């Protein structure tokens, strides 16, 4: 269980998150929604240790993550697929995957499992990451994250700019991970995509979690989407 309590963080002394609390349970998908500037990406960065929290706590299975240097957080079982993917463009697909394996010292079996999830990447192992299509780059970013065999997977706008077939692939992968007990925290703006996979939806506004609701009680016409997301 990922448990965030009272998390405050920001940039250059200007707070963006104000006492955020959020729980992400194994085998569940927690979607985080909100307008631009609500603090969603800042929350992802704070969980990963890329942004130092000024107060509050982050625990995974009772182990404190807050205060750890950023390079240590993935070794504790948290992986991030960031907005914009941030691949090593000049490196090949195989080399990007190897970097993911090295983080938690995983071996060939994990590599093969990841490539089975994304067979198109197996066909492009010697191709530079920057030459892949947008959908293929998103596959690679997700594959690299899964090389950590994470307990918690953070996805920041993973379907942005993708064609429908790639969006379906991302959805199916999230559902497979959910079935294996991975806790998924998904930042997403597309209401339909959220309702297809989510167990709960946390609505953020002005750096706070304004409301958390079970997804099964929501529809695309639910007023919360207009109130907190503007759709």
UniProtKB/TrEMBL annotation:
One of its GO terms (biological process) is L-amino acid transport. Coiled coil: none annotated. InterPro entries: AAA+_ATPase, ABC_transporter-like_ATP-bd, ABC_transporter-like_CS, BCAA_Transport_ATP-bd_LivF, P-loop_NTPase. One of its GO terms (molecular function) is branched-chain amino acid transmembrane transporter activity. It holds the Pfam family ABC_tran. The keyword Repressor does not apply. It comes from the Bacteria. Keywords: Amino-acid transport, ATP-binding, Nucleotide-binding, Transport. Residues 2-231 form the ABC transporter domain. The keyword ATP-binding applies. Belongs to the ABC transporter superfamily. This is ABC transporter ATP-binding protein. It comes from Gemmobacter lutimaris.
């Amino acid at each position: 269980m990922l448990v965030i309590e009272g998390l405050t963080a920001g940039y250059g002394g200007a707070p963006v998150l104000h006492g955020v609390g959020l729980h992400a349970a194994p085998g569940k998908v927690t979607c985080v929604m909100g307008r631009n500037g609500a603090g969603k990406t800042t929350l992802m960065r704070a969980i990963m240790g890329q942004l130092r929290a000024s107060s509050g706590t982050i625990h995974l299975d009772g182990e404190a993550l807050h205060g750890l240097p950023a390079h240590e957080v993935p070794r504790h079982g948290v992986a991030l697929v960031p907005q914009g993917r941030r691949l090593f463009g000049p490196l090949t697909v195989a080399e990007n995957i190897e970097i993911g394996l090295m983080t938690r010292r995983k071996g060939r079996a994990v590599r093969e499992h990841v490539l089975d999830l994304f067979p198109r990447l197996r066909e492009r192992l010697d191709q530079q990451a920057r030459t892949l299509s947008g959908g293929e780059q998103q596959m690679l970013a997700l594959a690299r994250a899964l090389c950590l065999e994470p307990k918690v997977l953070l996805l920041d706008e993973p379907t942005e700019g993708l064609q429908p077939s790639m969006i379906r692939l991302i959805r199916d992968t999230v559902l497979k991970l959910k079935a294996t007990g991975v806790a998924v925290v998904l930042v997403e703006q597309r209401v339909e995509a959220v309702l297809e996979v989510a167990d709960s939806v946390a609505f953020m506004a002005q750096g706070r979690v304004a409301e958390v609701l079970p997804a099964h009680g929501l529809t695309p016409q639910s007023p919360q989407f207009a109130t907190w997301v503007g759709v």
